[in-house]
Amino acid sequence: MDINDQLQHIRQSLGGTIPELFLAVFFCVFLLAELIFVKRFGKEKATSYLLNLAFAGSLVSLVLVAGQWNAAPSYRFEPLLFLDRQAVFFKILVTMAWAFTLLHVRILKYDFPAEFHALLIAAVAGLHLLTMATHLLSIYLSLELISISSYLLVALSPYKKAAEGGIKYLLFGTASSAVMLYGISLIYGLSGTLDITDDALTVGLSNNSDLVVTVTIVLTLAGLLFKLSLVPFHIWTPDVYEAAPTPLVSFLSVAPKAAVVLVLMRLAGILPVQFFPVLGGIALISMTVGNVAALWQKNARRLLAYSSIAQAGYLLVGIAAYSRFGFEAAVFYTAAYLIINLAAFFLVDLLQPRQETELKDYEGLGRSYVWISGILTIVMVALAGLPPTGGFTSKLLVFSALWESYHDQELTWMLWLLVGGILNAAISLAYYMRLPYLLFFRTVRAEAVSTNNSASGKLVAGLFLVALLMLFFSPEWLTRWISSF
Fold it and tell me: Which of 243, 258, 312, 327 is paired with 391 by a 20 to 30 Å CA distance?
């Protein structure tokens, strides 16, 4: 490719990354707007205006991403990025999580510094790039952009525990990043390429012993496992979820997972067969560790943190099944989990706004706040994977995909993963039902509560309820999108 072709390819690539360019420009504009607004309107009004500006930016970004749905699948800055309907779908999920996080901040009246919104924009830009990444270098750089933004977001939080949580987040993130970089260097040494769409990568790895390939894959997955909160890179999760403000935790619990799931699906197409038993083992261990540890939690956000570790394990089940049905089930599970988890953190925060979210503080609130508590109960039922909610549909799909793959391939580890996943789903009932029990079957505590009973909060809670029920009674509205990839 001569220089003219290179320049033309760059122009075409820039034209195909309009949402990402918008986020980059919006990030700079937002920082400038902060300086102007604070000086002109004062800190209090400026905070409100900047929140509105960030929310408007999220809606514009959503429109730009949706406009890419019918774009022809093609490379951007070949071979670094690839845009197809899969990437667009996951970018929509990420952008919706961002928009809802800002809505959460507005309804619960959080007072965040303007830097919070700017860093959130940078994190979303990194997530957008990660969904399109088809080169180990672009995957790594996207993860670093997300990670650095996340570290700062946690550390900037106006809470006493935020510094401790931020340091733990940084230390574990740095370690996983270094391990991943070492794994990438091994892949390059074994195959001579970092392009995950290049057949030379698969051939180069396959020509080595199973031990070498397995170690290389595990090391390379470290950064992705960290973002998914999977064992053994899960230790930071409970502390960060407890230390950071609930809207931020809500975003970090779903958006990075959505982008990383797509990366794992792309890797599944090129890595050797050793990749899938490793994924299956990590999924089973993560489900078990998350569910068992959650049984002893006394804080709602820590409980949801261990829940997210277990749920990430379920996400991997569909990918480990290694079939089109399995991949589609994993995408459905990701979308359903995003809705369910955003709802869980939002409703927990509505009942105890900006509090430590100790479980004992929720005792008896269900009798006074029936609507919010009732929907929170349904959300817990969805997380447990029971009907009639989208949680049941998503778990049914991933386990069905695994069962089908077991029949086709007759691999024993798939059967063990299936049995372990079902047993873990049963174990999770013990802690998912604890919060509904406290809400409705315990007496009201003497201390005064400051539940947010606003009409906007109830309306958003109602919309979540509709979405959860639709994912059970009419899941085809989502599966049609997924099948069109």
Answer: 243
The span from the CA of 467 to the CA of 457, in Å, is 16
HSE-CB at 12 with a 13 A cutoff on CA atoms is 16
Local structure of 135: helix, strand or coil: strand
The H-assigned helical ranges of 192-299 are 199-206, 210-220, 222-228, 236-243, 246-268, 275-294
* Residues 367 and 359 sit within 8 Å (Cβ to Cβ): no
247 pLDDT more than 60:
yes
Number of H helices and E strands in the chain, helices first, is: 22, 2
Q: Is 381 helix (H, G, I), strand (E, B) or coil?
A: helix
Burial of 8 (0-12, 13-18, 19+ CB in 10 A): exposed
For the stretch 145-157, pLDDT in tens is 999 999 888 888 7
CB atoms within 10 A of CB 184: 20
Helices (H), 385-454: 390-409, 412-432, 434-441
Quickly tell me which residue has 């749920």 as its tokens: 311
d(CA 23, CA 54): 11
Q: How many CA atoms lie within 13 A of 406 on its CB side?
A: 17
Say which residues have a Cβ less than 8 Å from residue 173's Cβ, sequence separation at least 6.
147, 150, 151, 226, 236
Q: What angle do CA 18, 22, 23 make, to 5 degrees?
A: 120
Distance CA 163, CA 238 (A): 14
CB contact at 8 A, 214 and 279: no
Q: Answer whether 274's CB lies under 8 Å from 214's CB.
A: yes
Distance CA 300, CA 317 (A): 26
> Could you tell me where the DSSP H helices lie in 80-194?
85-107, 114-132, 136-155, 162-191
- CA 195 and chain centroid, separation: 24
Residue 401: other Cβ atoms inside 10 A: 26
Q: Exposed, middle or buried: residue 132 (CB in 10 Å: 0-12, 13-18, 19+)?
A: buried
First to last CA, the chain: 30
**Positive or negative: CA dihedral 327, 318, 431, 387:** positive
Beta carbons of 349 and 246 less than 8 angstroms apart: yes
Q: What is the pLDDT of the chain when averaged over all its residues? A: 88
Q: What is the pTM of this model?
A: 0.93
Structure tokens at 169: 């987040």
